[in-house]
Amino acid sequence: MASIYPFRGVRFDEAVVGNLNDVVTPPYDVISPDEQVRYLGKHPNNIVRLILPREDQQMNKYERAAATLNEWLESGVLVRDSEPCIYACEQDFEVDGQWKKRLGFTCIVRIEDYDKKTVLPHENILAKPMDDRLNLLRSTRSNFDSVFGLFTNSEVEDIIKPFMMREPDAQAVDTAGVACNLWKISDPSAIAAVIEAMADDTILIADGHHRYAAALTYRNEVREQVGENPDAPSEFVMMTLVSLEDPGLVILPTHRLVRNLEGFDSKSFVEKLSEHFDLTEIPVENLAEAVSARSSEHHVFGLYTNDGLSYLVRLKPGIKPEQLIESAGSKSLKQLDVTVLHTLILDRMLGISAQQLSAQSNLSYSRDAEDALKSVVRGEYQLAFLMNSTRVDEVKAVAGAGDKMPQKSTFFYPKLLTGLIQRVME
Fold this sequence. Notes:
By secondary structure, the chain is an alpha+beta fold. The protein folds into two domains: 4-250 and 414-424, no CATH class; 254-388, Conserved hypothetical protein from pyrococcus furiosus pfu- 392566-001, domain 2 (2-Layer Sandwich), CATH 3.30.1760. The chain has helices spanning 14-17, 33-42, 48-51, 61-75, 127-140, 156-160, 188-198, 209-226, 266-273, 284-292, 321-324, 331-334, 337-347, 354-359, 369-377, 392-400; strands at 4-5, 10-12, 78-80, 86-95, 98-110, 119-120, 142-143, 147-151, 170-173, 179-185, 203-207, 236-243, 250-252, 255-258, 277-281, 300-305, 310-315, 363-366, 383-386, 411-413, 423-424. The strands form five sheets. Strands 1, 4, 5, 6, 8, 9, 10, 11 and 12 form a nine-stranded mixed sheet that branches. Strand 16 (300-305) and strand 17 form a beta hairpin. Helix 4 packs parallel to helix 5 (127-140) and helix 5 crosses helix 8 (209-226). The longest helix is centred in the middle third of the chain and has 18 residues, at 209-226.
């Protein structure tokens, strides 16, 4: 089952860089081009120079990241901890007007093939971002953005909490106001207890599927070059693990935006949609609230079209998605809201195939319902589908069945902070 280990983390020296708020960022995949520029200008040692490097006339961007990393290690900007640790990580954040805490710990995890059922993915990946992370890993031999994993064991919290009674070893607040505190745990007996507690557990990847896939590919490349060595650094990847029962585990919805449909006619589409779905007209200003109010129900969406039609869309009573969806997959997968939307509506009714989804030529995503609706008003998109969140138990069921959800099925909030702890292979 899951094999976790301590490691000698690499961290910014605050005596050199100053306030850690100036050098940390969200994970690479949620940083927009404009935000990248802002982080580059925020501090000469901002971690964005490693996770989203820029190429220059002398080096490509991956070589530049490796050169920057070596420079920072040699100059003392980054310092390696003297002994192997696991790192308790607590995030304080506000969502929907409520303050929450999410507790996890960062370690390294032995990389396993997916068929071992030890580390379970729940989303499909795209080739381009996976290749990007793989090239960065090849050049730097480092994990900067932690993979975010979930586990079930209930004992780990009791083991690590006593080590959090002192001042944190590192702390920072991100641009969304999320406070993150980090504590080193080097006590051998505590580490051994966490390892033992996790030994019979399975890890579900919540976020970082491309990072894990890149690490798995890199491990296999190293094995082909020098043979298999179970203790080689390439056999492990940095992960931050959170309990599935943690009260601060939050999933937010990701809305869908459709464009580039040739000959699209909204009235014909609505008529076709009504064959399997009940449509209730809702003023667009109330649409997001109407969808959210039905978050406990299944197969409910908000629909807004480029000619001002606004509906609450619900699968008709008595219709079972698993009977309509002919593709392979478990009942748990076929009953997901995102599967119903992608299969029955995007694919069958709008003709957006899996290949087009992968190319992102017709579909984009937004985490902000109001912005999604406004983008249709501005004429940038033809349709907006407002979604409710995928539930944690649904993620667990789909991953446990060996299935993978459509892209952007989950948005775990808050994102892990990048820059408080790194892993550079020794």
